[in-house]
């Protein structure tokens, strides 16, 4: 296997731009982050491959912006696997495609039961692709050669995989479906700004009491600020379970906090003053959180039967109809129509339920044209049938 060189200078980058432009066909792109090790989700390695050009491994922190490369190739098709995982960090350095082919998403649309890159490559190309370095700390410098081999192979196989999947899409009559899905990925908001991100703390639902919740919020916020400052994944400083345990226990002194066996992590004692200050802030603040997060989220479906039985009947009927349709089309139910979209339309349907009004409602919630065409009739029928009493059903049958 050829030794790979990481491009980490502007001169090397400019030479690579010329070579990539001189190649032909789609451009395979991948990015490696340091999730679980670093706070940021920036790319620490960007891989590209193009037939006639070769393989290129870029060091984004060293190179900076990729505007010149983007200007040269943005109009070409880029091939990615699970594009939504990489588009944000690519855009951060100026790489923003206008046309993509997502091999992972396409595999889903084909109904493949497992869509990880290694599995799809082995099934369609007959090549075993080891994934032992996928969760590595890619901020490591220098990067070990086995990691570079792994990173290079990820993109070198993508053009062949793209061609194999494109042929299957044609056979299945799903080329237009895939085109619409790829276009949606490029326009979708990939990062959601939560109004109360601390509510994502693992185990927070087990915390009882508004004051305890305030302590959990202050601990999470303090840890997040330190993690951002150090560019370290928050859980590597103090795990979620430790913050939750402290919020439940409400220790009455710094010494009591230090004595908690459940309060662990590499920064649990070195930053003890920080954590105690957060607990005191939560214990004394007048800005108390509500027990449940605010926002536009709907009640969980399990509560619908009590809170909105009509909506519960609509949801269950439509979900059953779409499950049958998804099996017929060999498309996963969540790709046929997102569960959130179905729930929102079932909770607040149009005043007059018709295929046309359901189609408009689905479009308002971001459903693609192919999804609307495939599902609006079935959803409308299910909603109408959910309103029928047993007597209505027997009369309709007769």
How many separate helices?
A: 21
Radius of gyration: 26 Å
**Low-confidence runs of at least 5 consecutive residues:** 393-398
Mean pLDDT over the residues: 94
Describe this structure in words.
This protein is of the alpha/beta class. The chain is 55% helix and 6% strand. It has 21 helices and 6 strands. Strands 1-4-3-2-5-6 form a 6-stranded mixed β-sheet. A hairpin with a 3-residue loop joins strand 3 and strand 4 (54-58). Helix 1 packs parallel to helix 3 (67-73), helix 6 (117-125) packs across helix 8 and helix 16 crosses helix 20. The longest helix is centred in the middle third of the chain and has 21 residues, at 210-230.
Note the topology.
Elements: E1 6-7, H1 10-22, E2 27-32, E3 45-50, E4 54-58, H2 60-63, H3 67-73, E5 78-80, H4 83-92, E6 100-102, H5 103-109, H6 117-125, H7 145-156, H8 158-172, H9 175-187, H10 210-230, H11 234-237, H12 240-249, H13 254-258, H14 272-284, H15 304-307, H16 309-329, H17 333-336, H18 339-347, H19 355-364, H20 369-386, H21 390-397
Parallel strand pairs: 1-4, 2-5, 5-6
Antiparallel strand pairs: 2-3, 3-4
């Amino acid at each position: 296997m050829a030794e790979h060189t990481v491009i980490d200078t502007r001169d090397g980058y400019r030479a690579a731009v010329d070579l990539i432009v001189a190649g032909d066909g789609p451009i395979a792109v991948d990015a490696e982050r340091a999730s679980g090790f670093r706070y940021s989700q920036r790319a620490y390695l960007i891989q590209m491959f193009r037939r006639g050009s070769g393989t290129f491994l870029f060091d984004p922190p060293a190179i900076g912006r990729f505007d010149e490369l983007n200007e040269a190739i943005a109009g070409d098709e880029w091939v990615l696997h699970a594009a939504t995982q990489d588009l944000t960090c690519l855009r951060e350095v100026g790489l923003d495609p206008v046309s993509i082919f997502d091999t992972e998403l396409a595999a889903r649309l084909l109904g493949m039961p497992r869509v990880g890159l290694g599995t799809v490559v082995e099934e369609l190309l007959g090549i075993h692709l080891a994934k032992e370095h996928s969760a590595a700390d890619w901020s490591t410098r220098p990067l070990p050669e086995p990691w570079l081999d792994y990173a290079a192979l990820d993109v070198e196989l993508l053009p062949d995989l793209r061609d194999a999947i494109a042929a299957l899409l044609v056979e299945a009559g799903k080329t237009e479906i895939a085109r619409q899905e790829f276009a949606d990925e490029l326009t979708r908001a990939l990062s959601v700004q939560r109004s109360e991100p601390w509510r994502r703390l693992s185990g927070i639902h087990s915390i009882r009491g508004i004051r305890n919740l305030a302590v959990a919020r202050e601990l999470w916020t303090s840890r997040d600020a330190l993690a951002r400052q150090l560019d370290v994944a928050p859980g590597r400083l103090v795990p979620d379970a430790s913050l939750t345990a402290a919020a439940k226990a409400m220790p009455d002194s710094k010494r009591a906090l230090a004595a908690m066996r459940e309060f662990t992590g590499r920064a649990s004692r070195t930053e003890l003053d920080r954590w105690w200050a957060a607990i005191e802030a939560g214990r004394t603040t007048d800005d108390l959180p509500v027990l449940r997060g605010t926002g536009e989220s709907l009640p969980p479906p399990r509560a619908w039967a009590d809170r909105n039985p009509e909506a519960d009947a609509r949801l269950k009927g439509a979900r059953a109809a779409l499950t049958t349709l998804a099996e017929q089309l060999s498309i996963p139910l969540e790709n046929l129509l997102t569960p959130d979209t179905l729930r929102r339309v079932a909770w607040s349907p149009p005043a007059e339920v018709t295929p046309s009004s359901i189609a408009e409602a689905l479009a308002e919630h971001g459903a693609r044209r192919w999804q609307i065409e495939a599902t609006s009739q079935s959803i409308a029928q299910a909603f109408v049938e959910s309103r029928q009493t047993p007597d209505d059903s027997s009369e309709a049958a007769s």
